[in-house]
């Protein structure tokens, strides 16, 4: 089932890339589906590429039973089975290769390759799962035309799906039937997909900008048809948006999406046949929250946008993953921003980069967005490749502007459509189309770590000039000591005391507000600055860096009110909070009580009461940074002090603003439930108010009333989270009621599991262990595992890091189980251990000894091996 590692797994290096000796132009697959013995026949047209007539054909294969090998119709014996490979020799320059393998989908708990989810069959081939189906050149630079015939029992599996168009079908006499599919677009094996099962289907259609009709089909488990509408709406919105903003049209006559319950990640962009984690398809107001809806829109968009950025132009090798992922995340973020609130989306994305992505940069797995060395590719579907990758694309967008950026996209498709490209090909297209020099900018692709940008300013009243000195420096990261200066787009604005913008000028000429920071140290001098200005910097988070500047409280409060864009106002609020969180962590460590000046509370009160602001934006203003994000500010983390400070600040804000919070809470009560953005925004602020009010005397009554009255999951969950976080007396009854109502529905129960995982109660771990016996829980299902176990280990730091090491022992137990059943999920769960060096000596020792236990596990999977080894050697 999992990789047998009698020998140590070996690493691959980006610099070792070589073109393949052979390619496969066409592959004709036949699947005879059976739960435990599925026979796969793969007939390929193979062509030698180089001029080495002795070149062997080295096919990848994993967990396969080889039945037969035929070359040009004759049984072939010139082959050797090596570890993970089938090596064929004495081959002609061009030939037909037929390989028959037998696989066991039911035993496939890793959910990679062909596996069973619920009653149906499905596949997951990215990154290297196709080799668990047949021996093949399982690398993204081999592009073949696929034909797929699926044979299965007709009653159990009425729907037999694969990529492209359905070209033939028929019945067999033993109650079985078959369907054949043909995908006209050559593609790498990682984009192959097969699904077989019984579903309800939501059908619709879309007319493209050139007037072609596309059939749209969403396949869901029987009985879930009433939860597929929003996914369909999002799909049609995605298709339209990509035409309008990027000029890109869909290219097949059919687009299918299948929702499955057992899935390792969010979703997969297989050509014409996306497979989705059901979490990102299924929603109705009774089962899904507003943030679930937003997630569906983003992920449907993301996978759809891959059709051009990923499928039409794919990656030459897996080191280039950010070519498709960074770019596609950028596109899905722009989609959500164009359809909804741009500032609120930007804030959410920046929180992810500043929190978990910066944390990744500091840890032992730190890597550039284009990694240099990989042991297990699945370990590199990271926040760095995806989210920082998107920030790198966004910086190019900032430097070039929309028109030049779109010209670059156009050129990129002209040069690389239908091929497997590199990150450098993309940057080259942007450079060629815009004429803007991106040579130093390219370092973002090779350099890991988070740059620190320290700024000093000086106002010269005599000369009416203002100077801004910017120093950049990137601290060393695991395996990369030396760092070079980067090209940083540094977006600034200056304000006078009335809050008016001061035009930027130097040497008598206007200066663009995005400064090109390229050197280790640079000074920018602005003229005609009539008075000491207030500077707003790194506007829109114009680069993924840490900004250091000594702002006064007054300046931050000024920016919270006067900065022209909402993101900058939010960011000023976050900087103000950060100052007082740091201050109070020291206060708590000295044994004193947390304090917050009245002026600071008033600044947040001002935001709360500002009627010109979008309520969803106000909710963001009032959101404290997470304990994990705060932990990232410290060389040595004091989990307990951070937890105490966040709790105390929440309490102070709640108490001091109680009247205003209550008034806003009441004023935002809604009649008819609606999913439009304005209604969602009001719920967001109303429920943010409730989360604070839960910490006041009326909290229990308000939360109880909201839970009882709620006609939608957003309000239900807001009540339950408030009760959970504030440990209200009403919590227990609500939890029992919810579990009674939803035990049959794992996806809905995930919300409940998440509350158990993040329960602040002293005995949270004991509850989590008990909850693992809940009938809706299963460690075999990645969503369940994440909602309960990962939420405890990753998002309940005060309890996970309990001094007695009980949280650590628990994680090791879980990892040991998952190492054999699903190493990909295990590898994501282990993350909290990788940060052990950031804790005190006692906790470090405890975590380190858990890592050591893991390192000597029998059959340690490559996924965990790579992380454990890096963590221990760091
Ligand atoms: N390419 C997918 C996406 O970002 C993600 C993906 C990679 C994936 N590997 C996977 C999904 C394994 C599921 C399982 O859209
Ligand atoms: Zn993707």
UniProtKB/TrEMBL annotation:
Q: Which InterPro entries match?
A: Aminopeptidase_N-like_N, Aminopeptidase_N-like_N_sf, PepN_Ig-like_sf, Peptidase_M1, Peptidase_M1_dom, Peptidase_M1_pepN, Peptidase_M1_pepN_C, Peptidase_M1_pepN_C_sf
List, in alphabetical order, the Gene Ontology terms for molecular function in this entry: aminopeptidase activity
The protein's name in its UniProt record: Aminopeptidase N
Q: Give one Pfam family.
A: Peptidase_M1
Task: Tell me the ranges covered by the Peptidase M1 alanyl aminopeptidase C-terminal domain, including all copies.
Answer: 553-873
Q: Where is the Aminopeptidase N-like N-terminal domain?
A: 28-191
Q: What keywords sit in the KW lines?
A: Aminopeptidase, Hydrolase, Metal-binding, Metalloprotease, Protease, Zinc
- State the species of origin: Photobacterium leiognathi
Q: Which PANTHER family match?
A: PUROMYCIN-SENSITIVE AMINOPEPTIDASE
Instruction: Supply the NCBIfam families for this chain.
Output: pepN_proteo
The entry sums up its family as follows: Belongs to the peptidase M1 family.
Peptidase M1 membrane alanine aminopeptidase domain sequence ranges: 230-444
At the top level, the lineage of the source is Bacteria
E.C. number(s) listed in UniProt: 3.4.11.2
Boundaries of every Peptidase M1 alanyl aminopeptidase Ig-like fold domain copy: 449-550
The protein's required cofactors:
Zn(2+)
Reactions that this protein is recorded to catalyse? Release of an N-terminal amino acid, Xaa-|-Yaa- from a peptide, amide or arylamide. Xaa is preferably Ala, but may be most amino acids including Pro (slow action). When a terminal hydrophobic residue is followed by a prolyl residue, the two may be released as an intact Xaa-Pro dipeptide
């Amino acid at each position: 089932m999992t990789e047998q590692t009698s020998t140590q797994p070996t690493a691959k290096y980006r610099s070792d890339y070589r073109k393949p000796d052979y390619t496969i132009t066409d592959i004709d697959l036949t699947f005879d589906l059976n739960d435990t013995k599925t026979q796969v026949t793969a007939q390929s047209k193979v062509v030698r590429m180089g001029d080495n007539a002795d070149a062997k054909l080295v096919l990848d294969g994993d967990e396969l039973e080889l039945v037969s090998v035929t070359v040009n119709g004759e049984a072939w014996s010139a082959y050797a089975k090596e570890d993970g490979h089938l090596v064929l020799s004495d081959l002609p320059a061009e030939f037909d290769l037929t390989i028959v393998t037998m696989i066991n989908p039911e035993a496939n708990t890793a959910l990679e390759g062909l596996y069973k989810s619920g009653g149906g069959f499905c596949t997951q081939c990215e990154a290297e799962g196709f080799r668990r189906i047949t021996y093949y050149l399982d690398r993204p630079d081999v592009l073949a035309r696929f034909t797929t015939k699926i044979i299965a029992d007709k009653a159990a599996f009425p729907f037999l799906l694969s990529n492209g168009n359905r070209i033939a079908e028929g019945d067999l006499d033993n109650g079985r039937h078959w369907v054949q599919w043909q995908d006209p677009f050559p593609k790498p094996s990682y984009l192959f997909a097969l699904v077989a099962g019984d579903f309800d289907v939501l059908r619709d259609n879309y007319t493209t900008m050139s007037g072609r009709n596309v059939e749209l089909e969403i396949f869901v488990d029987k009985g879930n048809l009433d939860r597929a509408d929003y996914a369909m709406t999002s799909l049609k919105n995605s298709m339209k948006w990509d035409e309008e903003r990027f000029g890109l049209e869909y290219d097949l006559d059919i687009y299918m999406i299948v929702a499955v319950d057992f899935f390792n990640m969010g979703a997969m962009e297989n050509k014409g046949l996306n497979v989705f984690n059901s979490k990102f398809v299924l929603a109705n107001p009774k089962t899904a929250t507003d943030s679930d809806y937003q997630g569906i829109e983003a992920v449907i968009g993301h996978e759809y946008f891959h059709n051009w950025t990923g499928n039409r132009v794919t990656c030459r090798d897996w080191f280039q993953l950010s070519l498709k992922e960074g770019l596609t995340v950028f596109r899905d973020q722009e989609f959500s921003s164009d359809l909804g609130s741009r500032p609120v989306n930007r804030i959410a994305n920046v929180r992810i980069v500043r929190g978990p992505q910066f944390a990744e940069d500091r840890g032992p797995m730190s890597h550039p967005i284009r990694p240099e060395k990989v042991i297990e590719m699945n370990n590199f579907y990271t926040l760095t490749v995806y989210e920082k990758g998107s920030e790198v694309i966004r910086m190019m967008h900032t430097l070039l502007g929309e028109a030049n950026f779109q010209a670059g996209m156009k050129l990129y498709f002209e040069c690389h459509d239908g091929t497997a490209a590199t990150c450098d090909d993309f940057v080259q297209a942007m450079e060629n189309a815009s004429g803007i020099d991106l040579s130093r900018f390219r370092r973002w692709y090779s350099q890991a770590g988070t740059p620190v940008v320290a700024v000093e300013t000086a106002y010269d009243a005599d000369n009416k000039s203002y100077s801004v000195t910017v120093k950049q420096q990137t601290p060393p990261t695991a395996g990369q000591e030396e760092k070079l200066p980067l090209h940083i787009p540094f977006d600034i604005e200056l304000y006078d005391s009335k809050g008016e913008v001061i035009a930027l000028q130097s040497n008598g000429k206007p200066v663009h507000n995005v400064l090109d920071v390229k050197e280790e140290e640079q000074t920018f001098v602005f003229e005609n600055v009539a008075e000491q200005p207030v500077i707003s910097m790194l506007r829109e988070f114009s680069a993924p860096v840490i900004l250091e500047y000594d702002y006064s409280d007054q300046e931050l409060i000024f920016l919270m009110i006067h900065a022209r864009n909402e993101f900058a106002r939010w960011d000023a609020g976050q900087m103000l909070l950060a100052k007082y969180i740091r201050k109070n962590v020291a206060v708590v460590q000295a044994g004193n009580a947390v304090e917050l000046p009245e002026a600071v509370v008033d600044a947040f009160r001002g935001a709360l009461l500002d009627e010109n602001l979008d309520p969803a934006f106000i909710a963001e203003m009032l959101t404290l940074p997470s304990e994990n994000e705060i932990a990232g500010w410290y060389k040595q983390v004091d989990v307990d002090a951070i937890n105490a400070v966040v709790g105390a600040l929440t309490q102070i804000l709640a108490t001091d603003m109680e009247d205003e919070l209550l008034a806003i809470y009441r004023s935002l009560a809604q009649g008819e439930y609606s999913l439009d953005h304005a209604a969602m925004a009001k719920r967001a602020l109303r429920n943010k108010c409730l989360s604070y009010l839960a910490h006041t005397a009326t909290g229990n009554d308000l939360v109880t009333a909201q839970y009882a009255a709620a006609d939608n999951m957003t309000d239900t969950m807001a009540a339950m989270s408030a009760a959970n976080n504030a440990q209200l007396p009403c919590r227990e009854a609500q939890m029992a009621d919810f579990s009674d109502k939803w035990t049959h529905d794992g996806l809905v129960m995930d919300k409940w599991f998440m509350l158990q995982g993040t329960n602040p109660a002293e005995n949270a771990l004991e509850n989590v262990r008990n909850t693992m016996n809940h009938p809706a829980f299963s460690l075999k299902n990645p969503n369940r595992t994440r909602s309960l176990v990962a939420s405890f280990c990753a998002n309940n730091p005060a309890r996970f890091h309990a001094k007695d090491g009980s949280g650590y022992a628990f994680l090791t137990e879980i990892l040991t189980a998952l190492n054999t059943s699903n190493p990909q999920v295990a590898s994501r769960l282990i993350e909290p251990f990788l940060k052990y060096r950031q804790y005190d000596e006692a906790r470090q020792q405890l975590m380190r000894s858990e890592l050591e236990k893991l390192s000597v596990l029998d059959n340690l999977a490559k996924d965990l091996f790579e992380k454990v080894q890096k963590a221990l050697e760091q």
